[in-house]
Every structure is written in C-alpha cells, then in structure tokens.
Amino acid sequence: MKLKTLLASTAAATSLAGGAFAEAHMADSMTIVSWGGAYQESQRKAYAEPYMEANPGVEVIWDESSAEAVAKLRAMNESGSISWDVVDVVASDAIRLCDEGLAMEIDADEQLAKGDDGSDASDDFGDLLVSDCFIPQIVYSTTIGYRTDMLDKKPESICAIFDTETYPGKRSLEKRPIGNLEWALLCDGVAKEDIYDVLETEEGQDRAFEKLATIKDDVIWWSAGADTPQLLADGEVVMGSAYNGRLFSLIEEQDQPVAMMWDAQVFDLDGWIIPEGLSDERKARALDFIKESTNTQKLADQAKYISYGPARQSSAPLVGKHAELGIDMAPHMPTDPANATNTFLYNYEWWADYRDDLDSKFQTWLAQ
Amino acid sequence: MSNTGPDAITGPTPDNAIRQADIAEKEAAGGDAAHAGPVLAADGTPLKQSLNRALRRQKLRALALIAPLLVFILVTFIAPIADMLFRSVENEIVEETLPRTIKVLEDWDGQGVPGEPAFEALAYDLMIAAELKNHTRLGSRLNYETTGVSSLFRKSGRRVDDIGEVYADQFIALDPAWEEPATWIALMAAPGWSAGEGEIPAAFEMRDGVAEVLPRTADMYGAFADVIRTEDEESVADEEPWNIVYEALYRDLSENPEAAIAFDGENAARLAAAAEAVPGFETTTMSEIFIDIDKDWGSNNTWGTIEAFSSRYTSGYFLASADYQLTPDGIERQPEDQQIYGLLFQRTLFMSMTIMISCVLLGYPVAFLLSNLPMRTSNLLMILVLLPFWTSLLVRTSAWKVLLQQQGVINDILVWIGLVADDNRLELINNQTGTIIAMTHILLPFMILPLYSVMKTIPPSYVRAAKSLGATDWTAFWRVYFPQSVPGIGAGCILVFILSIGYYITPELVGGTTGTFISNRIAYHISSSLNWGLAAALGTILLAVVLVLYWIYDRIVGIDNVSLG
Fold it and tell me: Where would I find the ABC transmembrane type-1 domain in this sequence (chain B) (predicted)?
C-alpha cells in the first residue's frame, strides 16, 4: 500500500515537473528529409545550424528523399518503423499524407510561434495553411524563363507559350497536367476565377487539351526540375516553365542570357510535415525544431540563400540580401509585389480529386 | 548439353540402390514364396529401410547446405513480391471502414439512392472513421475509381461530428443530466465497471441487455468508449458522448419506447421520461443532412461506387490495367481518352524487341571479333566493352542527351558537314529514337558478354575443317560457326529483353512522351499517385507477359540451347 502511494506521488511529481524539464524528454537526434541541392543547403544554414547552436548535443541527420517521401512514408508506416522526424514536402503531397493518415495534424496557433508582429500563426500563414498537417515554409512558383538572345520580341504574357508565330522555337513544359491545363484555359479566354469550374466539365477539359494540342509538336516535356534550365542554357528551347529558384540561379549565378517572365506564375508551397506514429520524445523534438525554424525571422533568413518567398506575411519585410552575391533578394521573390501582379494559386483540393483522372487523360494525350 | 541425370552416374548412389533393392524384392516375391523376404543389409535391417535412411540423410544435408540461401531468397525476394502481387486484388479498406454501410447496402437494388438506413449506417461508420482518421484514406482509395470521392469524404468527415447535435441539445434541454458522462456510465456500463487508475483506462464493459433494447445506442456508445480509450487514452467516464450517440438513442427510443423496462432505479426513470418526450422532438433525416453536406451523397454514382468496391477482393485494379473499369453497372471500357495501358504494354514490348534486335546486330560482330583476335588486342577491346558497363547508368544516359539533342554534338556535326539544314535539325531525343539508341548502348554488354563466352568455346578447327572440305567463307560461317553460337544469342536475347522490359530510368530521361515504358507508369503509381493496387496489377501483368514469352521462347528455341558459356 505504501509503495503504491509512493509511486503515485512520484508519478504526480514527474508529470508536474514535466513542463519545466521538457528538454530532457526530447530525443537528441532527428532525421530531416528534404530535396537535396541548393534548397537543402539553404535549410541547413538558415534552420538547422542555428538550431544546433541553440541546442548543443542535438544531432541532425539529413536525408534527400523528399521526392519519394509519400511512398516511403507509406512503406515505413506499414512496416511500423518510422525513421524520419521532419519531412519537407510540397503542399499536394502534404494533403495526400494527411489524407492517408501518415502525417500528424498540427494546430498552428498552439504549436507554432506567433508572428513577430504579434499575429497568430494561423493568420500569419493565412491561406497557405492548405492542410491540417502542413506547416508552409516557402512559396515558390512555376514560371517562364526565356532566352533573351533567341527571341526577337520580349514575351510579356503567359500566352506567348501558345504563340508560336511571334515566338518560334521549342518550349519546355512540365510533364503533368497541373499548371499546364490552367495556362491553356487562361490563354483560351477563360477568366482566372472560372478556370476550375470550366476544368471540371468534360468540355472544359477537352478545350484545355485542344489548346495544348496547338503547340504539342513544339514542346519538350520535362520531369526533373533541372531540365528547363539546362535546355535553356543549351539553346534547345527558347522558353520554358521552371521553378523560379532554378531560373534565379541560372540567371544570377551562372549568368546565362535568360530572363524571367512572371506573368501567371503558378504559386506552389513547400513546407514541413511530421510523420504520424513517432515516439513522444521524437515528436517533441520535431515539434520544437519546427516551431523554432518557422518563426518570422528564420523564414526570412532562408531567403538569403535561395530565391523562394517566406510563407509568413510577417517575414516579407525582413528579407535581405543574398548571402554570397550580395544582391537584394526581394525583387527575385515570387511574392514581391512587382512580380506578383498576376499570379495563380493551385486549387489543391480540386487537384486532389481530379489528379488521377486528368493525369491518365494527359498521359494518353501525350502518347497519341 | 552433357547428360547429368541420376542414372548416368556410374558409382553406387542410394537412389539407384533403392531401385535395385526394389527389383530384387519383386523378383524374390515372384519366385519361390517360401524364400521370399526382404533383402537385408549387413547390420540386419532391411536393405530398403537402411538405404532410405541414407537417402534422407543425404537430402537433409543438401537442404541444410542451401538453407541459408533459400531462406534469404524467400524472405527478401519471394515474400515481398508475393505481398506486392497480393495488393493487386486486396480491397479490405472499404469493408473495414464502412462495415455497417456495406451491410445495409447488401439489400440495395442499385437504383437511385439507398434509403434512410444506409445513410444512418454511413453516419455511424463515418463518425468512427473520422475519429480514427481513416475516412480520408478511404476517400483517396475510392477516388481512384470515381473522381470527387476524395473531397467528398474529407468534407463529410469534417462535419460528421455535428450530426445529431440537434438531438443532443433536446435531450439535454429535457434533463441536464444527459450531458453528464456519469449518467451515461450509469446507464450503459456493466455494474461495477470502472476505468481504473492506470495510465490507459480499462476496456469498457457494456451492461448486459442494453444491446437488445437500445441496439444503436449500445453500438455507438461502445464504439465511442473504444475510440476514447485507444485514440485519446482518456477515460470514457470523463467524456460527454459524441452527438451521434444522442441520435442513436433518439432512434432507439422512437422505435422501442418500452426500453426503460430493462433498467431499474434512476436510469429507468430518466429513460422513461426521455421515451415519453422523444415523439415531440424536432427531427431531421440523415439523408437530408448528408445531401446538405455535399450533393454528391444524393447521387447514384457515389453509392454505386461504394457498393461496387465493397468486397474484400476486387478485380478493379486488373480491369483498370487493361483499360476497363468496374462501374456500378458492371464492367465497362474506359473512355477512349483514358485508355493508356494497352498502348503502353504494346509499346514496351515493341521497343524491347527493337532494342534486343539492334543489340544482336551490333553485338554479334563485336563478340566475333573479340573471340577471334589475338589475346592482346581482344583484351584491349574487351576493356572498351566493359568500361561503359562500369560507368554509372545516369552518366551514360546524360551523355546521350548531350550527343543527341538538337543543338547537340551529332546534329552539330551533321550540320557542319552539310548533311542536314540548320533549321531542320534531326530530332534524336525525347522520342522513341532516343530511347532505343540510349538503351541499346546501355544493354549492349549484356549481349556481347554471353555471345563472347560462347564463341570462345567454338573450336576454330571446325571452320578450318569446313573450309578444307570446300566450303566458302560464308557457308563455313553460316552452316558451321553460326549454329554453334546460337546458345549465346539466346542467352543474350533473354537478358537484354527482360532487362529492357522493366527499364525505367533511361526512358524517363530520354524518352520524352512517345518513348516511355509501362514501368514509368508503375513508378508513377508507386511514388506519386500512391495507387499501389494498380501498380501491383500492372507489375503482375508484366511478370505474366515475361513468363509467357519465356515459355514461347522455350518452345521455339528451347531453353537448353541457352548458354552463358
């Protein structure tokens, strides 16, 4: 009896002290999964290094598997051993992972830091919180890069892609329906706000494919992010869609005769998720890292290393100069007001529904 | 092929000895019955038995020797493949997530929209699924079949906890005690049950007889207690039930106003009072609620899909990989603009065939040269064959990109020579040509090496003999040399064909849109769309096609005629 009381009081004491000694209950190593390359490097410098400085003894292991994150997380979940703690994924993957129950739900207001301006996290991120499991980190965009020396006229609108008379030559587009179908409809005269309503109908889809068909012979379809920059550098294409950060490094770092056209750039989001099923210690560590590294200042810091816009509104004014080139980063952000006059945000929910169908249509159309 | 059957071994083996013992025994039995009896071994046991033992020991020893490899292959190769193949028919998720709905739908005629009981069952299933966060998983599963189901389930899951709120409010207005978890425990729990003091509360025990008088309430309260305990690790004794439990109680009481008689004391009184008030409650139907959440619940298509995929095993994935689909009205062809797999299978086979043939055409002369040149030269040439073999696949593929693209090396040279006009450069990459060129190069060593090792064993004296007997160079090659090299061609062809049929990274990089294989689609379904069932079905078909081709090959060429050296 005495022993039982003793145990109970010890348990009570521990749970009381739990808040104060939270540090002791966090795992001291964590695996962060990202995309590799310059992007992962920017995360290492902006997030992980400061975090490790502030928390000596914490070991960070990097993995570069984000491209296969969804499939691998599913496999890990089935085998019951999850070896990742924090995973960087694009928003559509986050939605999928959340739907599959593979990512943990996170309450932005409770578990993330407030904005520097005192706003709640949910307000600070705003519309970008597209899934309950997703903490957005950057806004990137798929936009058009073109060769300045191979075109007689400077393209001003997205419809230049479909105008092979004024802008002769090959163009490169991503080998998936997302983005391309929206652009096709936009240039076929559909108003921006009606696009998904039109695309929902059979006729609307046919209409988009017909528009794409007008340039089918002039398109090289890319599937890796590095393709378009390479094709542009080689002069294989005169214009093509690519992630804005890749075009930035092609233009500013490699000094190629390429310029960017921001019209109808398609915004996309990239951010963190925490896998479902972690032990309490690891979960605590992952949450702590995410809370730390998605605060206003840290998000702004990342923009020093790569030209992707911070996902928090409060971070925008803090964006500074490039760490090595010393140029102002703000004008290279997809979110910069001058660039963002005409933008497009995916309708993630819509694509989650229609992706499978439209993808087989798209692939069949390509194969014909 | 040398004959290595058991009878060809000249020394005594237990196998042969048993046969001989058998024969000896039969002879003895056929002869003098008085002297019939088993032939005995030296130690007095029957010869047959002792030989059997020896044979068994030998077999066990052999098995023990290969056991590590066998287990290794079983665990790391056969089992995962079998598991993956099994996914192509497995479809348990629907029944596991919506058990009540599936049960009700069994009696549905498939016309229009099912009746109220189906919606009610759906509400119960969905409530539990939403708490366990399974509903979105089911949504994405069914979305492979019918577009829009994914968001339908996501949306409904978000609003399902409001279902029944109207009843909860009325019960509580009637008697505030209905809000108290303790009231519910007193009513539903077995007498004496308590959640206990442990970190994880004790499993809930239902009072006897409740399930008979209040079936829905018992079902939902039981589910509620389970979820609270396993998911939230809270005690059900501290939690107000879900709104839907009140709805269940409302339905039970309107159906069975006499339910109170099964209880005693305070419970009976409270229940009787509720039963009396229930007919005056404001009420809604479940179908209204669901159609209000999303109009798709009022569509025959949604329900038809659930019903069509309600069984634990489905042919849906295989149908999809043959460009058919399972619809509520039976099996239908996919719309024409979505028929892709037939095309891809054909293309994969055709291109693998082309790659195999070009490998033979290019590899045969090289192997011939290698095996007939003096050692020093042939070794040097061999290094040239092996060098690309040792280079990374990605490097070689990227090198082809540099060579083949329109502003690439080959086109530049052709333009410089004047063979091709500058504005009309050849398209050698991002199409079938690109895939065939790059893959032929990559797979060439797999053709040359077996060819070389077979050609090495053909004695040059045969061709010399043929010539000395008056054959021309061609006849000597064609009638004497070539037939002896056929096993090498066979081995090379099988290797190249089977490797290329499953190739995926090279077609992805240089294939553009017309040069991709079925494996690219499989990869897409594994890593992007997460439709593993369809990927498994496609993989199974691919495996079957390869096995059939192998069988045909064995029929025509004969697998004995394949040799790696």
Answer: 345-553
- A103 contact residues in B (CB cutoff 8 A): none
* Whether residues A306 and A181 fall in one domain: no
**Helix residue ranges, H only, B502-531:** 505-510, 518-527
CA of B407 vs chain A CAs: smallest distance (Å): 6
DSSP state of B74: I
**What range defines the domain where residue B252 resides?**
163-280
Q: Does B407 touch chain A (CB under 8 A)?
A: yes
Query: What's the gap between Cα B430 and its chain centre?
Result: 30
**Contact status of A37 with chain B (Cβ, < 8 Å):** no
Domain of A206: which CATH number? 3.40.190.10
Using a CB–CB cutoff of 8 Å, tell me whether B344 touches chain A: yes
**Cα angle value A242/A247/A252 (rounded, 5°):** 180
Q: By the CB < 8 Å criterion, does B144 face chain A?
A: yes
Q: A191 lies in which domain range? A: 140-268+337-367
Q: What is the pLDDT along chain B (565 residues), one digit of tens a residue?
A: 444 444 445 555 666 766 776 776 666 655 554 455 667 777 778 888 888 999 999 999 999 999 999 999 999 999 988 998 899 999 999 999 999 999 999 999 888 899 999 999 999 999 999 998 889 889 989 999 888 898 899 889 989 989 999 999 999 999 999 999 989 988 888 888 887 777 778 888 888 888 888 999 999 999 999 998 888 888 888 889 999 999 999 999 999 888 888 888 888 888 999 999 999 999 889 999 999 999 999 999 999 999 999 999 999 999 999 999 988 888 999 888 888 999 999 999 999 999 999 999 999 999 999 999 999 999 999 999 888 888 899 899 989 989 999 889 999 999 999 998 988 889 899 899 999 999 999 999 999 999 999 999 999 999 999 999 999 999 999 999 999 999 899 889 999 999 999 998 899 888 888 888 999 999 989 888 889 999 999 999 999 999 998 898 888 777 777 776 6
Q: Please give the structure tokens belonging to residue B135.
A: 């509903």
Q: Are residues A342 and A220 in the same domain?
A: yes
Contact (CB<8Å) B133/A363: no
CA distances from B137 to A274, B149, B155, B308 (A): 18, 11, 13, 18
> What residues of A are in contact with residue B530 (Cβ under 8 Å)?
70-71, 74, 96, 100
Residue-wise DSSP of A12-48? HHHHHHTTTTGGGGS-SEEEEE---HHHHHHHIIIII
